[in-house]
Amino acid sequence: MAIVAEGNRRRVYLSPIETHEAIASHAQPEWKPETSLPDDPRSFWTVDYGLTTYGDLFTPRQLVALTTFSDLVQEAREKVIEDARKSGWDDDGQGHPITRIFPLLIGINVLSVFSEGT
Q1: 72 with 38: CB under 8 angstroms?
Q2: Which site among 1, 19, 28, 67 is 20 to 30 Å from 94 CA-CA?
Q3: Cβ(108)–Cβ(73) under 8 Å?
Q4: CA-CA distance, 7 to 22, in Å (whole number)?
């Protein structure tokens, strides 16, 4: 495990102290996806190892991070819509400001792919 911090125009990687490790090891997600994985041994090998739901594919620490990022996207969506309405934009029920948060959604997806196994 490492802590990533902003340095002078670069990232700095720091070793955790015992307190950081204790906090990370006690991470408890508030939510876990319980959707079953396909029982197809040709493409999903995890089922044979007891990982039968999508939630099983992530560590508790990863689920906490993904839940936090997903919650922040929802907050960003609400803020975008609120700001659009304050500026006089009438969405006519279509939700067009939502298109402004697609980069955040894509970022969370990329983060989930690259964080697997960490």
Answers
A1: no
A2: 67
A3: yes
A4: 25
User: Tokens 């959707």 map to which residue?
Assistant: 35
Rounded CA-CA distance 27/18 in Å is 15
Helix (H, G, I), strand (E, B) or coil at 3: strand
Structure tokens at 104: 């955040």
Give the Cα separation of 89 and 3 in Å (integer). 42
Residue 13 sits at the vertex; the CA angle it makes with 71 and 61, to the nearest 5 degrees, is: 35
Query: In which band, very low, low, confident or very high, does the pLDDT at 116 lie, cut at 50, 70 and 90?
Result: low
Contacts of 89 (CB under 8 A, 6+ apart): 97
Beta bridge partners of 3: 14
pTM of the model: 0.61
User: H or E element: which one contains 17?
Assistant: none
CA atoms of 102 and 73, how far apart (whole Å): 9
